[in-house]
Amino acid sequence: MAPQVELPRVPEASDESDVLREQLEYLIEHAARGVACGCTECQRYLRVRSVLLEIFAEPPRPPRANVTQIPAPLARAA
Ligand SMILES: [Zn+2]
């Protein structure tokens, strides 16, 4: 009779990551149907999406480094 080692089920970080991935996949799949049904899942997807993409939404602004503004050379004749 082998002693059975029973590991307590402790939620670990990897578990949470898995949950996050699953949720994300689920929401993406829901949104991928192209039906903006406006349900709770749609709204969750939009929230998650905006958070995950927020670093892309605004390009990092470089410090003003010698940006010479080129004056418009051509006078626009109407
Ligand atoms: Zn929906």
Report on this structure.
There is one protein chain. By secondary structure, the protein is mostly helical. It has a domain of 43 residues. The protein is built from 3 helices and no strands. The chain is elongated. The structure holds zinc ion. The site of zinc ion has 5 residues, from helix 2.
Can you give keywords for this protein?
3 helices, single chain, 78 residues, binds zinc ion, mainly alpha
Count of beta strands = 0
Q: Compute the average pLDDT.
A: 81
Shape, principal axes of CA atoms: elongated
**CA-atom Rg in angstroms:** 25 Å
The main sheet comes to: none
User: Which molecules are bound besides the chains?
Assistant: zinc ion
Low-confidence stretches: none
How many helices does DSSP assign?
3
What is the beta-strand fraction? under 5%
- Write the H/E string, N to C: HHH
Range of helix content: 40-55%
